[in-house]
Structure of Ig-like domain-containing protein:
Amino acid sequence: TFTVLQLETPVICYTPQPVSASCPIVMTPPRVVVKHGGSFSVICSTSEAQVEGMGWESSLGAVSLTDNVTSLPFKITALTQWTFSPQCYMNLLNGDQCQQRLSVTVYKMPDSVTISPSSHLGPMVEGKKYSLRCDIDKVAPVKNLSVIWQKRNETIHSQSYNSEVNTPVQESSVLIISPSRDDNGAQIHCAAQLNLGPMGPNPAVMTVTTLCSPTGGLTTFAAIIGAGVILGAILAVVLGMLVTSEGTFSTTKGSWLAGRTSSSGII
């Protein structure tokens, strides 16, 4: 059994910042982190006095050249592309033009995060090695993904990915564990975390939990007790065969010797 927790917050963080010293354009915000299908707006502005006009170009529509302005807004109501890079341009009175692109990160939280044993079904035995696989379904962008394994709120393994693919992908992470008696009932968490920076949702995390139950198999202590019980039963049977009715030991009890009878009579 497992529980899934997903937390997301809107992306609103504006800090005006010049994109380039050679092109005096300020983007507010300087970069955008937006959920796929979500909306955002940005303002392109300049402190340059000799401006003829400004405009926006993008693969989802444009804002035509607008004369005699030093700021121009741009808005997307539903971002349906995974790679998006709108451009603001500015025409100067001397005939020059400069332009800057807005950095846009489009993200998607996983559809699901699940933990499953990759090589074992059933109870775990103390001291043996087992592998748990955490599957992250349809997450983007994977280059911002970190998978964090925790036991009792302590990080025991983490993994990141270097792919430049922007569309949703399925990834997995494998954890090797060797349970001990103290791990009985311990919770193991797998968290899929998108590291999207200060402009992104905080936290952008989906977590799944499983229980470590090594007591379903024989632990070392239980194995010792079980072996002692079996050995005791075997010893009792052997003693019953060797002890005579007079309370003495005889290796010939209940057996036939040529020319004489045993203490228990002829068989």
Confidence is low (pLDDT under 50) at residues 1-21, 216-229, 254-267. DSSP finds one helix and 18 strands in the chain. Residues 220-242 form the longest helix (23 residues). The helical segments are 220-242.
